[in-house]
Amino acid sequence: MRKSKRVLFKPKVFGFNPYADQVPAIKQIMEETGQESEAPVLRMLIDEALRARRQKAAGVLSTKQPSPAHELEGTLETIRVLLVKLVCQGETGFRIGSISLELLQEALAEARAGRVGLWETLVKPSLRERGRSAQEIDSVFETQIREGQNFSYKLASEIKAQLLASEAEERKAKVDESHSPELLLENGFARDDGEFDLR
Predict the structure, then answer these.
(1) What pTM does this model have?
(2) Is 53 exposed, middle or buried (0-12, 13-18, 19+ CB in 10 A)?
(3) For 111, phi and psi rounded to 5 degrees?
(4) Does residue 195 sit within a domain?
């Protein structure tokens, strides 16, 4: 305990006999604060009691701490609300994904129908006039379809690889940033072994 600069009132000495159950608590406070006599501890306790009485008289006593059961109930309610929100967001995301899939299927079907229509009305008659057989014409059509699919799959793979590489770089940057000494010094305390104790 730090020495107080307050003036001691010497003309009057207050003597009292503590209750038996108060003695162990007073001795424990003496050990914790390093006091060798009871007087400074008793003065501190009287200060705390008087301060509490003044606050009570002024009506500014701190509100009662909620019971553990009440805290647990509030925590469970918060978790329940968050889970409901997550479920709602998941359902919304699923509906958006379903609509996107339907639109994509419609676009693919329309593109295929347009390609087949142009093939049948423009390209196929031209190839017949050049003397190509039906089997050769079908083979050319299938070859073009496969080339288009291969190009699409290759482009999709390249885009996926680029996205994965970008995500990996972002994760690595976040890990490097979270382990930087500057950040550790700002958010934690250095330990004797040179590591950092984050609190």
Answers:
(1) 0.37
(2) exposed
(3) -65, -40
(4) yes
